Amino acid sequence: MPASSSIKYGFLLIDYIVLGVFLSLSVGVGVFYAIKSWRLQQVEEEKNEKSQGDKVATEDYLMGGRNMPVLPMALSLLTTFLSGIVMLGTPAEVFQRGMWIMLRKRIVKARDYLHNS
């Protein structure tokens, strides 16, 4: 590659749109569940005038009310198990070297498996 070539890297309009949509969805889910929890708490307070105090609110927050749907729970576990290096390193690696690095590993494993069989 010539030294005088000027390759510009950066976000295009579509990149900003996708980023904005994902951030909006993330914030929207958080706001939705915050409002839902607040309304549920208001109804429960009307019923029993908060007999156990802040202990109930803290336990409800930490345990998710013990009635969290399957999909958010599965996604939470998935992101917990994956390390930050994988979450940040893989997109950077693909951006820098392309998808070949991921495909190469699978091709080599398949070749070795077929060769050893």
Give an account of the 3D structure.
By secondary structure, the chain is mainly alpha-helical. It has a domain at 82-117. The chain has helices at residues 13-48, 54-63, 70-81, 84-97, 100-116.
- Alpha-beta content class: mainly alpha
Q: Write down the overall geometry.
A: elongated
Helical residue percent band? over 70%
First-residue to last-residue Cα separation: 43 Å
pLDDT below 50 for ≥5 consecutive residues: which ranges? none
Binned strand content: under 5%
What do the pLDDT scores average to? Answer: 80
The helix/strand order is HHHHH
Number of helices: 5
Rg result: 24 Å
The strand count comes to 0
Major sheet characteristics: none
Task: Present the secondary structure layout.
Layout: H1 13-48, H2 54-63, H3 70-81, H4 84-97, H5 100-116
Short description:
The protein has 117 residues and is mostly helical. Helix content is 76%, strand content 0%.
